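Entry 14. Ran structure prediction on the chain below.
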Amino acid sequence: MRERGWEKEPLIGIIVTHGHLDHILNVGAVARKTGAWIAAPRLDLPNYTGQMRYRGMARVTGGLEALGRPILRFQSFTPDRLLDDGDTLDIWHGLRAVLLPGHTAGHMGFYCESLRLLFSADLFASYSWSTHLPPAIFNSDHSGIPGSVSRALELDLSGVLPNHGDRVGPETHLARLHELRSNFSPG
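Output, structure tokens:
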């Protein structure tokens, strides 16, 4: 916030898209310092206390997080509001939680119906040189992600805003997500 010149603006809330350490590392510390509320996916609750048990290829992520938590001084936290699919947040122009599992069990996007925009979190990465799903080692259930991509594209969308992507308009990211889905093999 300091880099953007927003340090004097009050921080009233923090919305968590999923429980991976790179997305929750400073949530607890910032909330304690500012008094901001935390809204986070219910299904990722074990991540917020460092108790998540990863399976399969995602054990790589679990190992990295286990090493990273003490080194990076992760502070566990309890969300003030646990979000489920379809829950709404009365902020900005209104946001609806959309469960998009696969990356984590509780991975969520946030849909603004009035602007027809989806904040898609880590559903996919969108760069001019590569549009792709997250690597399997970072996913709790990699096989579930194509269904989540399809679910996202069922929304009435004018654009998508991914966590990982180049600086282009949301319409470009949406076109890339459509192209990515068209590349899925049937079955």
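Residues 2 and 55 are 38 Å apart (CA to CA). Will compare against last week's run tomorrow.
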